[in-house]
Amino acid sequence: MSFSSPENITQYLDRLCGEQCSQLGFFSKPHRAEIKGTKVIIKRYHPIKKDVSHIIKSHDEYIHSLKSMGIQVPWTKILTVKRKSKNELVIIQKAFKEEEVLRTMFSQNPLEDLYRYLTLVYDEIVAYWNKKPFSLEFGFHPTLRNYSVRNNSLYYFDTFPPMNMPQTELNKLILQMAPVHDWIKGFVPIKAINRVSNEYYNFDKMFLGIVGSSVRLRPEFGQQILDFTENYLSGAKLSADLKKQLLAQVNSPPKLSFLWRFVRKLTGNIGRPNVKLPN
């Protein structure tokens, strides 16, 4: 897929009438569309005045790094569209069917299938953590809504924002690209974004984020998910200290922080509430 000029891209996107396929994105609400016979997902981001060439470069390098660590990413292209004095980033990505989206599968299928999906995701992030150089400052957000499944293989499609940078720099990019008014951004300390981005850089929070999402999505199977997770961790290829730390926290459903729930409401994102299982 290619376009002859930036003007051609702009004209195409302005004519595009796709089907919104998710309310879950923070930075962008994805749309399904078709380009030259190929079904794609279009993600359009909050236009900003600053130059975006460094973001595009980081994005392409981020995908390359993910693939080098064994993470499968569908065909993805990032573009810039000029909007008067601002730059709009647009991502075009090869689409998966709705029934291949992991969150959809997880919300609809029986318990035995849930165990299989959890094993796929748990295996992927354990392998990622063991492959990632310890000193590399690199973020990753392997939650259910960021995956599709085809032929029993995971495909990770959440490539924005690129996280191949120190956490402080990512926090600045998150705030810069957040789809909220600039006056609101002025009140948010960069360090406060850690309450969200810690999950991208710390294995325990990354893993517990998946557990929490799973229980919130299928609370009727909450205890079974926790029991399965405890059993998985017991045999996982992780350090003894990390196992001990995680096992101590999966005896009850992990919860979303107040800040994340507030941001979700502020930006119109949907999501399931925290779950408290009966004693």
Q: List the uncertain runs.
A: 17-25
Largest sheet: 5 strands, antiparallel
Instruction: Give the class from helix and strand content and strand pairing.
Output: alpha+beta
Query: Mean pLDDT across all residues, rounded?
Result: 84
Oligomer: single chain
Strand element count = 7
Write down the domain tally. Answer: 2
Individual helix count: 11
Please state how the strands of the largest beta sheet are arranged side by side: 1-2-3-5-4
Per the principal axes of the C-alpha atoms, what is the gross shape? Answer: globular
Q: What is the H/E string?
A: HEEEHEEHHEEHHHHHHH
Whole-angstrom Rg: 19 Å
The proportion of strand residues reads 5-15%
| Proportion of helical residues | 40-55%
Distance between the termini: 55 Å
How would you sum up this structure, described in words?
With 279 residues, this protein is of the alpha+beta class. It folds into two domains: 6-94, Phosphorylase Kinase, domain 1 (2-Layer Sandwich), CATH 3.30.200; 98-266, no CATH class. The chain contains eleven helices and seven strands. It has a five-stranded antiparallel β-sheet, sandwiched between helices. The protein has a two-stranded antiparallel sheet with strand order 6-7.
